[in-house]
Write a structure and sequence with these properties.
The chain has 3 domains: 13-23 and 219-302, Helicase, Ruva Protein, domain 3 (Orthogonal Bundle); 45-215, Rossmann fold; 306-407, Winged helix-like DNA-binding domain superfamily/Winged helix DNA-binding domain (Arc Repressor Mutant, subunit A, Orthogonal Bundle). It is α/β, with parallel strands linked by helices and 408 residues long. The chain is globular and about 65 Å long. The protein is built from 17 helices and 8 strands. The protein binds a DNA duplex (22 and 22 nucleotides) through helix 15, strand 7 and strand 8.
Length: 408
DNA sequence: CGTCCACAGGAATGACGGGCGG
DNA sequence: CCGCCCGTCATTCCTGTGGACG
């Protein structure tokens, strides 16, 4: 490709398209996306073998043990599970063993009903997304399962968020379902980021679900480098990546608890930045900018889809922070929030509700909330925003009243 | 060493929009 | 169409509690 003349701003759309078209950066960027499962998962060989060994009995018609999989985000839990199940499935097809796999993301399906409905759907029967009694959906699942005469795997990804929201009732039911089945078998694979999560579980559920346990340690920087190097071969054109780009991505992600997803995101976004500017090489500078971009995208995406009161709450937190320097207690936050609500002429929610919304923000990583005891002066929660002003502005952008608030 | 603050966070309940089977 | 049950968001009422003050 011929080099391009890059105008200082080059704001016209035509220019942008032209630059993207002629910048030969990506062969296939989808290989860097977090949901892509590669054929080769470096540094997870032992986990793959263990999981394979545990699940293999399905091939000869016995029920594999239920499994608990632990590990912080981005350690390959989901990828390895899907990889092994896929292999098992093709192996089963070749040998006449009937396998069915239901993969549930509990972050999305975080109620009894939705989990069961989704399992039914993936095993083969459509269920309305609301309207039926939970017990009815469960009955349908039992019948469906037994009629299928298969080994059924139910993967509950991020199962901790299900239990925190809806309790362990579903898990109790699902892990006990085999008693009601004569011709089929169900194995549960629970995946969790939260290492202390089993404490929330009923002991009976814990022992049933934890028949086997598998731990995924975080990747270190050099392991991340291996992963990126392997993926980059097929996703980038040769010679596009600067010498230290992969090293830098790995080092940055290693600092963030060895999150491979983060490392891949950095690499992909760095490439996209280069592409957008019509440059022919991805440099370390792109990676550094990608780091800001990745964080911004996350925040903006989450905040934009939030309901009004959550956004008002974020705004209140921001105002409080500007005024006092370091966040405030639930009571102080609530006071500011009621004021803001009045200014927006909407009715304020109760403190109880706001307390829940604060916890939600904390879970999403937008705020930091931790309970502190101030002794004689009560027990409260200290809340701080954990996003930058700049990202906040972008996130609240579509509402001019909010941005003008931030301005002053 | 007990008290008592300022909330945390659980439970019950209700309004709402929606699907179901009859 | 009805009566029923669903999930979600929100309110109301409530009990529980770490630790500085006295």
């Amino acid at each position: 490709m011929h080099p391009l003349e890059i105008g200082g701003m080059g704001s016209s759309l035509d220019d942008l398209f032209k630059r993207v078209l002629s910048a030969k950066i990506f062969v296939n960027r989808d290989l860097l996306r977090p949901d892509y499962i590669p054929e080769d998962l470096p540094h997870r060989e032992t986990q793959i073998k263990r999981l394979g060994a545990i699940l293999a009995p399905a091939l000869i018609g016995s029920r594999p043990s239920n499994i608990f999989i632990y590990g912080v985000p981005g350690t390959g839990k989901t990828a390895v599970t899907q990889y092994v199940l896929k292999k098992l499935d093709t192996e089963g097809k070749n040998n006449g063993a009937s396998l069915k796999i239901a993969f549930i993301n509990c972050k999305h399906d975080n109620t009894d009903y939705r989990v069961l409905a989704d399992v039914c759907e993936q095993v083969g029967e459509r269920v309305p997304f609301t309207g039926l009694a939970v017990s009815e959906v469960y009955k349908r699942f039992v019948k469906l399962a037994d009629d299928s005469k298969s080994s059924i795997f139910v993967v509950l990804d991020e199962v901790d968020s299900l239990v925190k929201k809806a309790g362990d009732e579903v898990l109790y039911k699902l892990t006990g379902v085999n008693k009601q089945l004569s011709r089929a078998r169900v194995s549960i694979i629970g995946i969790t980021n939260d290492l202390k999560f089993t404490e929330y579980l009923d002991p009976r559920v814990r022992s049933r679900l934890g028949e086997e346990e598998l731990v995924f340690p975080p990747y270190n920087a050099s392991e991340l480098e291996d992963i990126l190097r392997k993926r980059s071969v097929a996703s980038f054109y040769k010679g596009v990546l600067g010498a230290e780009v992969i090293k830098l991505c790995s080092a940055l992600a290693a600092k963030e608890h060895g999150d491979a997803r983060r490392a891949l995101d950095l690499l992909r976004v760095a490439g996209e930045l280069a592409e957008r500017n019509g440059e022919l090489k991805v440099t370390e500078d792109h990676v550094r900018r990608a780091q800001k971009e990745v964080e911004k995208d996350r925040v903006v995406e989450v905040v934009k889809t939030m309901p009004l009161h959550s956004r008002l709450l974020i705004l209140s937190l921001h105002l409080l922070e500007k005024q006092s320097g370091n966040g405030g207690t639930t009571g102080e936050v609530y006071e500011v929030y009621t004021g803001v609500s009045k200014n927006f002429s909407v009715e304020a929610l109760t403190q109880r509700r706001i307390s829940d919304l604060i916890n939600e923000l904390d879970m999403l990583g937008i705020a930091n909330a931790r309970v502190v005891s101030k002794g004689r002066y009560g027990r409260t929660k200290l809340v701080r925003l954990s996003i930058s002003d700049r990202n906040l502005r972008d996130a609240l952008q579509e509402d001019s009243r909010m941005t003008s608030y931030i301005g002053k």
